[in-house]
Amino acid sequence: MTPFGTRLHEAVAARGPLCAGIDPHAALLREWGLDDDVAGLERFAMTAAEGLAPHVSVVKPQSAFYERFGSRGIAVLERLIAACRDAGALVLLDVKRGDIGSTSQAYADAYLDPASPLASDAITASPYLGFGSLDPMIDTARKHGAGVFVLALTSNKEGPEVQHATTASGTTVAGTVLDHLRRLNADASPLGSFGAVIGATIGETGEDLAFNGPVLAPGYGAQGGTVADLKRIFGASAGAVLPSSSRELLRHGPDAGALRDAALRTNDELAGLAG
Fold it and tell me: What is the DSSP pairing of strand 215-218 with strand 241-245?
């Protein structure tokens, strides 16, 4: 299978860099006039898929908002993933899993093996049991042409106590994560398949953010991130950034056409990101 990095590079060239979050918060369901139940969840998810998936390069469902409804919510997530992929979007499933050994492999099989009903093009992962704990996910992604986005420099206020901490070698934890990604992507062209999660609102950083892989940048739009921020933070690497927006887009629902128009406008705003 064509590597995820190659498929992502082609998708962004065709549809723009916007990553559209499909996160059915209870408050958003109410704003859409829907009940906070499985029927409301399904209506929300499939309307968002209709409005967004044919027009953006990447969609990013946050698994927790589906898991909270149990098995019926997971069934909605399965249908959402299939619908978005059928519409030509790559699916980045936001699960932030991180474990060791056979459990890490089980997560990889659940989300990255095409035989699974939850199979996605890429997932988010947590490296804080040691980057090597992600080896089963990395190996499975390579086998199936999928991708893994690893937490590196998140914009939540609690993140720095771990990510800015210094390791025994003198580098920061975030810098160590980026070094691992740099090695994984070293020989990839046009883009590696192993990415980092770096917030669009982190401000200044002394880290080297060039690692030949994609960046998921949450916080664009409603959370305050701008094109100027992305250019300042990522510099020459800005062309590999996927600015992620959820609330800014989803507030335009429940009309699928309004969701589409919001996504197209946002991609127009991002057109000069690589320039």
Answer: parallel
Q: Which of 96, 143, 157, 231 is catalytic?
A: 96
C-alpha pair distances (Å), 150 with each of 132, 177, 225: 12, 8, 20
Whole-model pTM: value is 0.97
Say whether 143 is catalytic.
no
Residue 61: its H or E element: strand 58-61
> In this structure, which amino acid lies at residue 124?
T
pLDDT digits (tens, 9 = 90+) for 239-273: 999 999 999 999 999 999 999 999 999 999 999 88
Which of 20, 197, 184, 192 has its CA nearest to residue 124?
A: 197
Domains of the chain: 4-273 (3.20.20.70)
* Residues in CB range of 212: below 8 A, 6 or more apart: 182, 185, 186, 188, 191, 192
Summarize pLDDT for 164-212 with one digit per residue, the tens. 999 999 999 999 999 999 999 999 999 999 999 999 988 778 899 999 9
Q: CA 225 to CA 203: how far, in whole Å?
A: 10
